[in-house]
Structure formats: structure tokens, C-alpha cells
């Protein structure tokens, strides 16, 4: 992960930088908004921007939107007033990070942006087959299509393949095709020339050029507009791209890994995915099994997530009781590994003592660890917990609701109630 910081070096931000570097984050620091914009235009790349609240955050985000740069922004400040934090959020920042740094919050913010470094866990026979194929094809330059249901670990496998490839010393760049609006995605992938559209005040290098020499992960490629798919097909076939507004093609050297949680053959039938692009990507296809098909991995996955969230939250070590493990093994896991991670995350936060008990494992359909109605909620502890988790998720209420084990509607209801009490 690459973190771009806009601000002046001081002891407080230095402490935050040290936390990020310890988490294996590459940190770049610039002194102004203009320097940051130039850095992004040049294709040097950032997965997250931290900007001092004293800078003009509104201008930064407005410029990024105009130039079709889709990188999340988090504001930070030393001993700031609540008003400054609110203004930063209103200006478009996803979150506000108070300094001196809270290691839990920094760890959670970094995790919510990128978590490529999760270990590959494959004790089960189905995953041994997947890892075996991945090891065989990693050294090649062939395009790879990773398929499977949501939450099966496609991005983790993509990073694993990259780490075993001959390009592992070059960039690994991820583009979530589902998360970036259609009108921004073309510039995000291919870049643009100065004057290509209103707001394009300078040349911008896209993800294809940024990842040249390395690997480009096109996550959830089935969500890409079919008109843009034609340009992607040419880029893959010819190993060259055209910047938006450009007059001549640019050669690129990279490996493509794509993922999809949809049936692409069905999408071809419906006319939403190009058949020629499918065959160009599908040189190697690896399908990840559902978690219900690899239950031998549940204990190791759970222990790995416990260690992660214990460390992120600076808690004493925790472990699963035999009853809690049995409960996990007996569940059907429609949400796969992502659902398991959310359940373990919640159990780590809510459990008391060193052992996670069966009642701490809040699975849909079982008794919830959080109150289910307005009448029996609103304790200060719950308010703090929900506020922390929404912050951890950078305001993503879907992710926060998943971690809390409640519906988005109920989460919004709780947030409205808490807001009304302040």
C-alpha cells in the first residue's frame, strides 16, 4: 500500500508515519496540495492521501474530481477542534484522524483501504489445488482470471500470484472497477492529456502506465461498462494504450489479473460483457471455492483474524473456545471468508476475557451482540463502538453494518438517534 501525506513533518505526524511503515506501508510526504496533485498526475501512485486539516482540503478534492483522480482522502490534525474535523468531512474527506496518533484508528484506516498481505491459507484439499495451480502459472506472463463468489479471497490470491511472479519487484496496482464511477474509470485506467476535458489542466498518467513492468489487478471486471471493455481489449492485445485526448499510442509492459464474482458466460449471453475480452482474459482461470467447501481452513482463518484484530486494537491475546469453533464449523457461510472475518472482528471487539465464547460469535439468525431495536439501545458503550467501527470503515456504512452484524437500515437508525442526542 502507498500512502501520500500532505503536510509538514513534526513529531506527531512522524509517529503516525512510523506506525504506517511498521505496517509495511510505503510513505511519501509532500509539502503542498499542488505537489500532491503533480505527484498523482505523474502516475507515481497512492492508495490513500492524508492531508493536514490546515490545508485547503476542498480545493484538493475538487481538483481531484475535476481531473478524474479517484483516491480516498483522510484529513488529520493536531489538537483540532470538533469544528475543524466537521469542516474537513464536509469538504469531502472520508475520515478525520486526530493526532497524536491512535494506533488502533490508523491500523483500521490502513486495513480498510488495502489488505493484500493476508497469508494464503490452504489446508483443505480444494485450496491445495488452487494454490498448486497458482504456483504453476505465477512465473508466466499469461493473463489470469480469478472467479468465485464474493468474499472468497480473490484479491488475496491475486497478490499471492504477484508475489511469486517474476514481476514481484515491480508495482502491484489494483483498480476496483465496481467502486469507481463509469465517467472516472477511463481516466483512472488510461490517463488523459491536458485539455482532454473540462478540468484536465495537466497530463495525468493512468494505472496502466503506473503498473508498467509489474501487475495490474482489475477487480470485479464484470462491472466495467461494455464501451470501455473495447478499449481494455485493445490495450491487452496490443500492449499499448491511448490516453484520453491523446494523439499517439503508448506502449506498456504489464501482467493482467482480473477478478469477477459474476458468471461471465451469462454476462456474455446478456450482452453486458464482451466475448472476445473474456477469451483474452481467460487464458488461465482459477475458481476459488466457497468457504462451505473448505471448512478445514476455518480454524486457521479464524485464528489469523483474531491475531490481526487483537494487534490492531492493542488487546491482550485471545483464542476461540471449542464451543465457538463448533459454531463456526456448523454455519453455512453464504458470505464466505469476508463474512467470517467480520464475525471474528466483531467477536474480538465485544468479547470479554482471553477466550472468545460461543455467545460472542454473532452469526445471522442467532442472538445478536447488539440491541436490535431503538428501545433497548443507546448505551454510551454502544455509541462509542458504533462510532469507532464507522470510523474504521471510512464512513462505509455497508462494511460497518457487516462488522456490527446489523442491517444498514438499523445502523442508520442508530446513527440518527445518537446524532439527535448530541
Summarize the structure.
This protein is of the alpha/beta class.
Describe the structure.
By secondary structure, the protein is an alpha/beta fold. The protein folds into three domains: about 1-115, 3-Layer(aba) Sandwich (Rossmann fold), CATH 3.40.50; about 125-290, 3-Layer(aba) Sandwich (Rossmann fold); about 295-420, Helicase, Ruva Protein, domain 3 (Orthogonal Bundle), CATH 1.10.8. Helix content is about 45%, strand content about 15%. It has a five-stranded parallel sheet, with helices on both faces. Strands 7-8-11-6-12 form a five-stranded parallel sheet. β4, α4 (about 80-90) and β5 (about 95-100) form a beta-alpha-beta unit. α16 (about 380-390) crosses α17 (about 395-405) and α17 packs across α18. The chain is globular. The relative contact order is 0.10. Mean pLDDT is about 85; it is low at about 365-380.
How would you describe this structure in keywords?
single chain, 422 residues, alpha/beta, Rossmann fold, Helicase, Ruva Protein, domain 3, 3 domains, five-stranded parallel beta sheet
Amino acid at each position: 500500500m502507498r500512502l501520500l501525506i500532505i503536510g509538514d513533518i513534526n513529531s506527531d505526524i512522524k509517529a503516525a508515519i512510523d506506525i504506517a511503515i511498521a505496517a509495511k506501508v510505503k510513505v511519501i510526504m509532500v509539502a503542498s496540495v499542488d505537489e500532491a496533485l503533480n505527484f498523482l498526475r505523474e502516475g507515481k501512485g497512492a492508495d490513500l492521501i492524508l492531508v493536514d486539516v490546515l490545508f485547503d482540503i476542498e480545493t484538493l478534492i475538487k481538483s481531484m474530481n475535476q481531473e478524474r483522480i479517484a483516491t480516498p482522502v483522510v484529513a488529520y490534525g493536531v489538537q483540532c477542534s470538533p469544528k475543524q474535523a466537521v469542516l474537513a468531512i464536509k469538504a469531502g474527506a472520508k475520515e478525520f484522524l486526530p493526532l497524536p496518533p491512535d494506533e488502533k484508528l490508523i491500523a483500521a484506516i490502513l486495513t480498510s483501504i488495502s489488505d493484500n498481505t493476508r497469508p494464503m491459507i490452504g489446508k483443505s484439499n480444494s485450496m491445495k489445488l488452487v494454490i498448486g495451480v497458482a504456483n504453476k502459472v505465477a512465473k508466466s506472463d499469461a493473463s489470469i482470471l480469478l472467479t468465485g463468489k464474493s468474499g472468497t479471497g480473490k484479491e488475496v490470491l491475486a497478490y499471492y500470484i504477484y508475489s511469486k511472479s517474476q514481476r514481484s519487484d515491480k508495482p502491484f496496482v489494483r483498480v476496483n472497477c465496481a467502486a469507481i464511477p463509469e465517467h472516472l474509470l477511463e481516466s483512472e485506467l488510461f490517463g488523459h492529456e491536458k485539455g482532454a476535458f473540462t478540468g484536465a489542466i495537466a497530463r495525468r498518467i493512468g494505472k496502466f502506465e503506473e503498473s508498467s513492468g509489474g501487475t495490474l489487478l482489475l477487480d470485479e471486471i464484470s462491472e466495467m461498462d461494455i464501451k470501455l471493455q473495447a478499449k481494455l481489449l485493445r490495450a491487452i492485445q496490443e500492449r499499448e494504450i491511448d490516453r484520453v485526448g491523446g494523439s499517439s499510442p503508448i506502449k506498456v509492459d504489464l501482467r493482467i489479473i482480473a477478478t469477477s464474482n459474476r458468471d461471465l458466460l451469462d454476462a456474455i449471453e446478456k450482452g453486458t460483457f464482451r466475448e472476445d475480452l473474456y477469451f483474452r482474459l481467460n487464458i488461465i482461470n482459477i475458481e476459488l471455492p466457497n468457504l462451505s467447501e473448505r471448512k478445514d481452513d476455518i480454524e486457521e482463518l479464524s485464528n489469523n483474524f483474531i491475531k490481526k484484530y487483537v494487534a490492531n486494537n492493542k488487546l491482550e491475546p485471545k483464542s476461540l473456545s471449542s464451543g465457538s469453533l463448533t459454531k463456526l464449523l456448523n454455519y453455512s457461510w453464504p458470505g464466505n471468508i469476508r463474512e467470517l472475518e467480520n464475525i471474528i472482528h466483531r467477536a474480538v471487539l465485544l468479547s470479554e476475557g482471553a477466550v472468545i465464547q460461543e455467545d460472542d460469535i454473532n452469526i445471522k439468525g442467532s442472538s445478536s451482540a447488539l440491541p436490535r431495536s431503538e428501545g433497548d439501545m443507546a448505551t454510551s458503550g454502544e455509541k462509542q463502538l458504533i462510532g469507532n467501527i464507522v470510523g474504521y470503515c471510512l464512513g462505509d456504512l455497508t462494511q460497518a453494518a457487516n462488522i456490527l452484524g446489523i442491517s444498514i437500515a438499523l445502523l442508520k437508525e442508530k446513527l440518527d438517534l445518537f446524532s439527535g442526542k448530541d
